[in-house]
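Molecular record:
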Amino acid sequence: MINNSKYQIRPLCAAFALVWSGMSVELHAEQYSLLEAIEKAQSQDPWLDGSRFRQENLESLSVNAGTLPDPTVSLGLANLPIDSFDFAQEGMTQFKVGVSQMFPRGKTLALRQETLEKMSQMQPFAREDRKAQVSVTVAQLWLEVYRSQKTIALIQQDRGLFEHLVDVAESSYTTASGRTRQQDLIRAQLELTRLEDRLTMLRQRRESQLAQLGEWLADSSYELDIEMPGRLGEGHLNDPLINETGTVIRTQKLAQILTAHPKIRSIDQKISAGESGVKLAKQSYKPQWGINASYGYRDADPMGNNRADFFSVGVSLDVPLFTGKRQDKQVQAATAESEAIKTERTLVLRQLRSGFETAESQYRRLLDRRELYRSRLLKEMSEQAEASLTAYTHDDGDFAEVVRARIAELNARIEALNVEVDIHKIVAQLNYFLIPSHKKNSAVLTDVSSASGELIDHE
């Protein structure tokens, strides 16, 4: 289940329902709100299972790496005479049992275990980042399906107006009571045909988007049809930086948020593992110790006298004397790898900062556009269309201008819808960058299902 405070994407008041128009067979499918779609996509994401298996693998390897190598046991016959192969003939002949144990250099075992443990600890952060990415991807696909479906609804709604224009043109042309020309009638019919083509293209796009969404929902056996909600939220972004007027303070606060991002924390774990790797490489300067012990059994001499058995014990070590081309290079390679990971962190942090600033800028400009559409543009487009039609019906206007005004009004309404959907898509992106602030503050960063704003549909 997705954590609401973590990903901050609330459901639009909508559901998926299966509607296959033109088919006599009725099919049924589950209904999904936006949040339900995200939860199902996350619960069925095989990448997350793979990450858990990778973590389990590294944890098991870390336990193995911290264990001493197995001791070596040896059995043998020493100094057996080959002329008679008589075990009791010679005093040097003995049956030997030995055991030896090697001890890795310095703190090699502990550092190997520590390195693998730190690598395994990357996976929870990687999964957290993956879930956030899935929530953004599914939300954007869901919203694209919504955009296509709502655009289809807006065009179908205005289709009656264009049919009415065709009827008006036909009536005026046949009665010869007005100034309607044959080309006006053809133009009206042409625009109606172009609307049909536009609807076909939108349905094609919607089917493609549904197929992409079906991939994340792990079910492509049905077609989804988003029911149109009566209200669509404002897409309000409760940016924790929005009240910060000082550039320096705002930059510092953003840096703190992005530094706590799961993608950066995963790289931090990788850097920590790299530092342990450097320490591990430095252990190669220390000697490797070994201990061995053996017991030699001897038989009685030919006269029947007992012979003493032998016990041996010894210590071995290798001394790294010539380090120029082995140990020095090994440490140098580990150090270079650790520094390379730090540059990776810098690059990812820059990408996150740039992505946030780009998305935030788009978000603010989209809010300006939405306000323009709501306060002026849609109203002015509607007034222009009505004025053109009124002028034409009073023989004081051109029919082509009526058609152009109606098309412009429809396009403006569709563009207003696009702005509304784009706001929600940008909010989903911003939520991804601001995950740490969500976790620190339980306050909801965005509520796309709030009733604080009404979708501009002018139905």
